[in-house]
Specification:
Length: 217
């Protein structure tokens, strides 16, 4: 356990970040602005020293925890989310101009909780809202990524939000997405996928889809 966590427990924080008196200075300053700031800080431009890991975790359902207790203050969660960064080492950090603090992420950084379909000059655009209020339109810069879930072989869909941060579609949205998927044409013939911003995003081959459907029959 880090000195930060030891002191937080000694102060009786018990998972309530608003009571963390000895958080690093950069995070304390950040917390004091919860609910006030708008926009995303330029964390990709900051290169502070690594200050160690914090017992903070983003669960697979998108819930944030500190010292094992959920963080109930939505403004604080959104503020922490605004300074998230996943580096090339595969780890996720809270980054301020003066500190870089490691946290744990069980699956994705965010949850995509709502989907909208709207027409554009490039064809239909799929836009998603995350659990922390981001609006992401799926395109070349914010592509889909699909993978099978370990153990269940269920399909999981992710969207690139910014940098290396991703949002995972909820199970309900995953069903909605599959419902509008179709077989590709031309160079994408033989693949099952979805189109957004004029780009075809393959989910799987038609052969794999047919085999799956046959197994369920």
């Amino acid at each position: 356990m880090s000195k930060i966590e030891q002191q937080a427990k000694a102060d009786g924080a018990k998972g309530d970040p608003s009571a963390m008196k000895d958080m690093p200075d950069g995070l304390k300053a950040l917390m004091s602005r919860a609910g006030k700031d708008k926009g995303k800080p330029p964390v990709h431009l900051w290169n502070p020293d690594f200050c160690g890991d914090l017992d903070m975790r983003i669960a697979s359902d998108g819930t944030w925890f500190y010292l094992g207790s959920p963080i109930g203050r939505e403004a604080l969660v959104r503020l922490f989310a605004s300074v998230l960064r996943k580096d090339d080492d595969g780890k996720t950090y809270l980054v301020t101009p003066v500190e870089k603090i490691g946290i744990t992420v069980d699956d994705a950084h965010f949850q995509a909780v709502e989907m909208a379909r709207k027409p554009s000059d490039q064809g239909e655009v799929l836009t998603f809202r995350t659990n922390v209020g981001d609006l992401i339109s799926v395109d070349q810069d914010h592509p889909f990524r699909f993978e099978l879930e370990e153990g269940t072989a269920g399909l999981k869909a992710y969207i690139n939000v910014r940098g290396n941060l991703e949002a995972r579609l909820t199970r309900a949205l995953m069903y909605d997405l599959v419902a509008i998927a179709e077989e590709g044409e031309g160079e994408h013939e033989g693949y099952f996928g979805v189109i957004s911003s004029g780009i075809f995003f393959p989910i799987c081959s038609m052969a794999a889809l047919n085999a799956f459907e046959a197994a369920l029959a």
